TrEMBL record:
InterPro entries: DUF305_CopM-like (IPR005183), Ferritin-like (IPR012347). Keywords: Signal. It comes from the Bacteria. PANTHER family: SLL0788 PROTEIN. It comes from Sinorhizobium glycinis. This is DUF305 domain-containing protein. Residues 1-22 form the signal peptide. Residues 40-116 form the DUF305 domain.
Length: 121
């Protein structure tokens, strides 16, 4: 794993307030070193990096088009992060939230892509 990905994973974990050795689902979380982040941290960092890369669009000067092109990538990032929660998360309320996010964001992506297709993009 590259140093950049390790740093992203650590920053992401810190932004979620995940201390080293945090409790997870009532069990002591496996301690991981900076060289080997937890699988969920790695997955979140990868989703985050992909989302930011995909949001780096060439702006057209048309606010409507630029807004939707950026938001599609942003919404896809939310879906990808929600999928990480479903794969690794334990809390029933958060898993339900993740399912709701996936459903809502997929519907909005569909609407945005349809708008772009109808408006010359």
């Amino acid at each position: 794993m590259s140093l950049k990905r390790i740093i992203i994973a650590l920053m992401l974990a810190a932004s979620f307030g995940i201390p080293a050795g945090a409790q997870e689902g009532g069990h002591q979380a496996m301690h991981t070193s900076a060289a080997e982040p937890a699988p969920s941290s790695k997955a979140f960092a990868e989703a985050n990096a992909k989302m930011h890369k995909d949001m780096d669009i060439d702006f057209t000067g048309n606010a409507d088009i630029d807004f939707l092109r950026g938001m599609i990538a942003h919404h896809q990032g939310a879906i990808d992060m929600a999928k990480v929660e479903l794969e690794h998360g334990k809390d029933a309320k958060l898993r339900k939230l993740a399912e709701d996010i996936i459903k809502a964001q997929e519907a909005e992506i569909t609407m945005m892509k349809e708008w772009l297709a109808k408006n010359g993009e």
